[in-house]
From TrEMBL:
Top-level taxon of origin: Eukaryota
Protein family (similarity comment): Belongs to the PPR family. P subfamily.
UniProt name for this protein: Pentatricopeptide repeat-containing protein
Keywords assigned: Repeat, Transit peptide
UniProt organism field: Urochloa decumbens
Gene3D superfamilies membership: Tetratricopeptide repeat domain (1.25.40.10)
PPR repeat intervals: 169-203, 204-238, 271-305, 306-340, 341-375, 452-486, 487-521, 522-556, 557-591, 608-642, 643-677, 678-712, 713-747, 748-782, 783-817, 851-885, 889-923
InterPro entries for the chain: PPR_P_subfamily (IPR050872), PPR_rpt (IPR002885), TPR-like_helical_dom_sf (IPR011990)
Length: 967
């Protein structure tokens, strides 16, 4: 998380500036410094008192959240006297009967877990005078009894309960039915209903309502009518919520007349809520005329449509891409004072932009402010990205509209994302608005965007064209057009720019071109390309290029060898870097390193502070901090004084490996040598101390930092916030975020993401969602890691609709199909943080940002929740976004097939299985087991046996296992 510029890279840029200075237009040229140094923002001076709250003791956990001590005592006794419950256990329990409450009983049941012991304790508790079980107690017992098998409770235990207390058994059986309904398992719920009747009990009204609801949600409307008829014959009526669910399900099937008849039979009067639910069902069935007719019918029945009604209609038409209908509904609802919410406005603008109806999209954009939901980060990126994202330049009128919206966006303190920034600037350069394009790049980069490889490929050309050094690239083109031969300095600036962007092949083309026109490269030109090849880990090409350099008579200098050592370190070739260094100082005769020292010129080259800095930095990053520390002594012995960059590298290295005491020793040595610690120095120490949970020590360093007039920057605050989240102090982390804003330090995407992750791990997903909204409105755009963290926590908390909404937003505003690698998607985050999300494994199996795993996560959770329609819809989207399958899609297939088999949708399950095999994915054994169970469940024994036979005799290669050939 804590990043520092490498010493060698800094020296190389300085050398290039000096080498090209004779051709610079003026001393203010900004080619090699893309972002200006930010000016300090106004704010009151920090002091130790500002951070005093970090020392405050953490408030104790509320008593209500703790397990009652009596429950712990009773649980231990029950387990200890398990074999003698009627004797020793009951004697112990009688001494504690005064402590019986529903909370104690629930806690004991969840702690003991053993079904037989739980049943005995439950029945004993029910017999005690002055105590009666609540619904929470029955739910807890049902959870214990169905622990191993979700719906089928052991008959023997149920009969024991019935023999002891028939009333308790009746309530429990009703609870088991409702429990299946809550999990969406309607088939298991009907089985439990049958068992309830077999035991001689009748379902309660709540049980019937739960059954009708789960059947309606699953689309089993005919079965729902049967249950409703039985319910009516038993003297029960459906409640309002159940009627709404059932009516919506019937409308979804196109049976809205049956829904009206059912409402009339139940003697229920139509109201706005019920009508809205029916309209929602009609919209899902694509019965648009009927839905609008029903809207008019509402008014005839004195049911006034409200904002939910209109938003339901609008969302339905938008989902079905009926944009003409959308305009009509928008006019109707706004006349009545109802407005779309921000998310719906965003989707509307996105749809009209896709339809190239930019005029209407802009009207909606302007309308948002008057509807108390001003446009934000998402909608501005949608609008400008749609106009400028195509391969061809937009019409002048459209580009002017994009410029107008961009100015409005800046006034709203919102920002463009990377791709839209590059595309917008490219379009402006296409109409020769170089200065404005350059300003856009600068403004967006000041907001925290670092262009990635694909972005640089678009940005570098017009960035050079807009520079003050004779408008670099523009001058280069003009020079060729008029027949003036560019010199070595012009080519070197271009080559260095492309190398820094990682576009080595294009830089090589410029290099070949300059040689073809008779312009000889110099040592600076060779060094720039050599360093780029090494950083890209292309060692064979780097070796060949070095040969070409020596053969051309261009002798490497100290900067070249420093770049060579730095490049080898960045490529992970620490051993080779050390061999180069050893050869330079004359202590190595390694054959492997002889390649880099052809000729006798190296006798006059001695390592300098830049060389040592590159090697120390590389050793520290490879966690060879002891070797790096020994190198510090070697420097001093040769009379080479270490600089603050080397000390910073050592301090950061010791902190990264957890040797804080060693880091403090280097810190003291640094100060004795007259070097003032920088914000990077303090930040490394504070970060390590927070991670080591040494909060008091971190506060001392922070105090020393403030006394030295060194103001914490965003990296420092982010390290503290991440450290607080790591020890579960998310409330203090929120306070620290608020304080850093007050002090004029704007949080970046890493800060927000770390805090959102900490809140999610503390079970505060709702606060994390609020923080996500806040960061977008305050000019800090979320990136892939932010979305991934929040989607993970939403799924874990059961907030599936919120997780799906985040995925939709990410698809609209992020750029997964453009980004060619992870290097910039995870930039700024520590390796440990990325590993905690499971992204390191995905990086090895994906060439682009992995949108498919996010789909897989949502598909799995929607499948387990019984929401198969949404899961299948997500699967279809995933196939469109990421056609190439991987282990993630395999998991998604397995989860979907299992859920479809449980719901007896065998045709769809086998369809997915066929698609899976057709795409070359080998199913897991569990997939076949689910398919076979599904066939058996519907009495298709022949098909089940045929599937078993094919598995045994065709020899299936299981993933991660030996082949199963029927042996």
């Amino acid at each position: 998380m804590i990043r520092r510029h490498a010493a060698a890279a800094t020296a190389l840029r300085a050398y290039l500036r000096r080498a090209c200075s004779s051709h610079a237009a003026d001393s203010n040229d900004q080619l090699l410094g893309l972002v200006e140094v930010p000016k300090p923002r106004p704010g009151s001076r920090l002091s130790t008192k500002d951070f005093a709250f970090l020392k405050e003791p953490t408030p104790p956990i509320p008593a209500a959240a703790l397990t009652p001590p009596e429950a712990v005592l009773i649980s231990k006794a029950i387990r200890a006297y398990a074999t003698d419950f009627d004797g020793s256990a009951e004697r112990f329990l009688r001494r504690h009967r005064d402590f019986l409450t529903d909370a104690v009983v629930v806690a004991v049941l969840r702690s003991v877990r053993a079904p037989e012991l739980c049943v005995k304790f439950f029945l004993w508790a029910e017999r005690q005078v002055g105590y009666s079980h609540t619904s929470a107690c029955y739910d807890a017992l049902a959870e214990v009894l169905s622990f191993e098998d979700r719906a089928r409770t052991a008959e023997r235990l149920l009969r024991e309960i019935g023999e002891d207390d028939r009333e308790v058994l009746g309530r429990l059986l009703n609870v088991l039915v409702r429990k299946c309904c809550r999990h969406g398992a309607w088939a298991e719920a009907l089985e439990e209903l049958g068992r309830l009747k077999d035991f001689g009990y009748r379902p309660s009204g709540a049980t019937y309502n739960a059954l009708v609801q789960v059947l309606a949600t699953a689309g089993q409307v005919d079965m729902g009518f049967r249950v409703q008829k039985e319910m009516s014959e038993s003297g029960f009526c459906m409640d309002k919520f159940t009627i709404g669910c059932f009516a919506q399900a019937l409308c979804k099937k196109g049976r809205y007349s049956d829904a009206l008849d059912m409402i009339q039979r139940e003697d229920f009067k139509l109201d706005t809520v019920l009508c809205t639910q029916m309209i929602s069902g009609l919209m899902e069935a694509s019965l648009f005329d009927e839905a609008v007719s029903f809207l008019h019918r509402m008014r005839c029945n004195s049911c006034i449509p409200n904002i939910v009604t209109y938003r339901t209609l609008l969302s339905g038409f938008l989902k079905k891409k009926q944009l003409g209908w959308c305009k009509r509904i928008i006019n109707m609802m706004m006349k009545e004072g109802c407005n779309p919410n921000p998310s719906l406005f965003n989707s509307l603008v996105h749809s009209y932009c896709n339809a190239r109806d930019y005029t209407y999209a802009y009207k909606l954009l302007k309308r948002m402010s008057s509807c108390s939901c001003p446009p934000g980060y998402v909608v501005y990126n949608i609008f400008i990205g749609s106009i400028c994202g195509g391969e061809e330049l937009p019409d002048p009128e459209l580009l002017a509209l994009a410029e107008k919206v961009y100015e409005e966006m800046l006034a709203s303190n919102c920002v463009l994302n990377k791709v839209n920034t590059a595309n917008f600037a490219r379009c402006l350069c296409g109409v020769e608005k170089f200065d404005k394009a350059f300003q856009i790049i600068k403004v967006m980069m000041k907001k925290g965007f670092v262009p990635d490889t694909s972005t640089y490929s678009k940005v570098i050309t017009f960035l050079c064209q807009a520079m003050k050094v004779e408008k670099a690239f523009l001058l280069f083109q003009e020079m060729k057009n008029v027949g003036v031969k560019p010199d070595v300095y012009t080519y070197t600036i271009l080559i260095d720019s492309f190398c820094k962007a990682g576009l080595i092949e294009q830089a090589q083309k410029w290099f070949d071109e300059m040689r073809s026109v008779g312009c000889s490269p110099n040592v600076v030109t060779y060094t720039a390309l050599l360093h780029a090849y090494l950083k890209a880990k292309q060692l064979p090409q780097a070796s060949e290029f070095f040969h070409r350099m020596v053969d051309a008579g261009c002798l490497p200098n100290a900067i070249t060898y420093s770049a060579l050592i730095d490049g080898l370190c960045k490529a992970g070739e620490i051993q080779k870097a050390c061999e180069v260094y050893a050869k330079l100082i004359g202590t190595s005769g390694s054959v492997e390193s002889e390649f880099y020292f052809e000729g006798e010129h190296t006798d006059t080259i001695a390592p300098n502070v830049v060389t040592y800095g590159a090697l120390v930095d590389g050793l520290c990053k490879a966690h060879k901090v002891v070797d790096a520390h020994e190198l510090l002594d070697a420097m001093l012995s040769t009379g080479c004084e270490p600089n603050h960059i080397i000390y910073d590298a050592l301090i950061d290295g010791f902190c990264k490996v957890g040797k804080i005491d060693n880091a403090q020793e280097v810190f003291l040595r640094m100060t004795k040598c007259g070097y003032l610690p920088t914000v990077h120095t303090y930040t490394s120490l504070i970060d390590a101390m927070f991670k080591d949970k040494r909060l008091d020590l971190a506060m001392k360093v922070l105090s020393q930092m403030l006394e030295g007039s060194c103001t914490p920057n965003v990296v420092t605050y982010t390290a503290m916030i991440d450290g607080l989240c790591g020890i579960g102090e998310s409330e203090k982390a929120l306070k620290l975020l608020s304080m850093m804003k007050q002090k004029g330090c704007s949080p970046n995407v890493v800060t927000y993401t770390a805090l959102i992750d900490g809140l999610g791990k503390s079970g505060k997903v709702d606060i994390g969602l609020q923080l996500f909204t806040q960061m977008s409105t305050q000019g800090c755009a979320p990136n892939y890691v932010t979305y991934r963290v929040l989607i993970n926590h939403c799924c874990a908390a059961g907030l599936l609709d919120e997780a799906h909404s985040l995925l939709s937003e990410m698809k609209q505003t992020y750029w997964p199909k453009y980004l060619q690698g992870y290097s910039f998607a995870v930039q700024g985050f520590s390796r440990k943080f990325i590993a905690s999300l499971g992204l390191l494994e995905e990086m090895e199996s994906h060439g682009t940002v992995p949108i498919a795993p996010v789909y897989g996560l949502l598909i799995d959770n929607f499948s387990k929740a019984g929401r198969l329609e949404k899961a299948l819809e997500l699967h279809k989207e995933m196939m469109e976004v990421s056609p190439s399958l991987n282990i993630t899609s395999k998991v998604a297939y397995a989860s979907l097939i299992q859920a479809l088999c449980l719901a007896s949708h065998l045709e769809e399950a086998f369809g997915l299985y066929s698609e899976m095999v057709r795409k070359g994915v080998v199913p897991e054994l569990s997939v076949f087991v689910c398919l076979i169970k599904g066939l058996v469940k519907v009495n298709k024994w022949n098909e089940a046996l045929q599937l078993c036979y094919s598995i045994c005799h065709e020899g299936v290669k299981w993933q991660g296992n030996n082949s199963f050939d029927g042996g």
